[in-house]
Specification:
Blueprint lengths: L2 H13 L2 H8 L3 H15 L4 E3 L4 E3 L1 H27 L5 E7 L5 H14 L3 E7 L2 H9 L5 E5 L9 E9 L1 E6 L3 H9 L6 H4 L5 E3 L2 H9 L14 E3 L2 H9 L5 E4 L9 E5 L6 E8 L9 H13 L2
Parallel strand pairs: 3-4, 3-5, 8-9
Antiparallel strand pairs: 1-2, 5-12, 6-12, 7-10, 7-11
Amino acid sequence: MNMQQLECFTTLAKTLNYAKTAEQLSLSQPAVSRQIQSLETELNAKLFNRTTRSVSLTPVGFQFLDDAQQMLSLYYHSLEWISTFHQQKRTVLRIGYADSHANCLISKILTPVLAENTNIVPELMLDQTDANLHRLTTNQLDLVIGMKDAKFHDDAIAFQKLCDDAFVCVVNKQHPLAQKCKKRRQKSVSSADFWPYRQIIDIPPYLLKHVFSRGHHIVPVNDELDNILCATTSEAYNLALAGAGFSLIPSHLAPHHKELVFLPWEESPHAPMGIYYRQQSALDKNSAIYKFIGAAQNCILP
C-alpha cells in the first residue's frame, strides 16, 4: 500500500468521479484506475461499485475511508515534522478535546505558552474522548484534555490531573428553580432542590449504551419527568440558556453568561480533570507538550 493509492482512493471517495479525481491529482484517468485496482487487489476487497453512469463506495470502502484518511494525515504530518525538525522553525502541538466549551480553558493555557514560544503551532481536534484517546495512542495527537476516562488504560499513556472537578447546576435566571433559589438567597442547590424540574442530560454517544443499559445514571435523574438527552455539554448549556430546563455541567465547561445562574451542586461527585499524554513524549523539558502541561498546572492548580 502506498500514498498514491490512498490519495486516489480518498479523492475518488469524495468526488465519485474518475475525471475529477484525475484532474485534482494531476493524473490521467487510466492511472487513477490502476491505482484503485492495485489497492483493491492488495486489500482483496472491492472498494467501489462502478457502472457506466455512477461510482459509489461499497460498505468495505466506506469503512476503510476513515483509516485511509488517518494514514494520509499521519504521513503528511510526519513529513512536515521531519522537514522542520533540524531547523526548529515549527513545532505542531496537536490537542484533542471533547466539547467546544473547553476552548476557553485551552486558550487560557495556550496564551503563556505561545507568548514565550512563537515556533509552536497548535492544532485542535474536537471529537469524542474515546476517539481522541485512540488518536493519542496511535501518535495522531500529542495531548487530550478533559475528564479522566475510567474505561481507558494504556501503559504508554499518562494522565496529569489538574483538579478534581465538580458539577455545577446551570439554569436560566427566569427558570422557577433559579427564582426559588433567589427568593431563598441560596448560593448552592441540593438534589432535592432540583428534583421536581426537568433536567437536560448530556451523555456522549459512546457512553450512552453503557449508562442506560446498566440502569444507572452518572448524575441523579428524576425519570418521571420529560427530561432532555443531548450529546455534548455545549448543547446542554445552550438548552439551559433557552430555558428548557436545568443541567449539571462540569465546572470547567461552564463559562459564565449574564442570562444564566451557576449554582454549585452540594452532593456533587468529584472526578479528575486533566491531560492525557504519551509518557515518552514529555521527557524533554523543552518540548511543547511539557510546556503545555506546565502552563495548565499554573492556570488551574491552586
